[in-house]
Fold this protein.
Amino acid sequence: MYVVMNELHVPAEGRGNVAARFAESAEKMKQVPGCLDFMFLNPEEDENFQIVMTKWASKTDYENWVNSDAFKQAHKKRRENLDKSPTSGNKIYAYEAVHHL
């Protein structure tokens, strides 16, 4: 299993906007080959980040998604509207799951 966490840097006032954008993604991710789970996480503390966590059957499945036309379409709106986006940046963390249930 391969796990990817995308830490989105978002001020508190922008969290609702970002969460709404990712609400559409949850259903679409069910159709992506190899995607086992998709979660959008809000912090309990007053932190300036939100997390998108995905679980994949393999690293190859994740890479296939990132290189797909569907991925490009999903991220096209953000690329076109960077000046309007509440996100100021992001950081990707990727892991091979050594142990899991």
User: Anything to note?
Assistant: The CA atoms of residues 63 and 99 lie 21 Å apart. Strands lie at 2-9, 35-41, 49-56, 89-96.
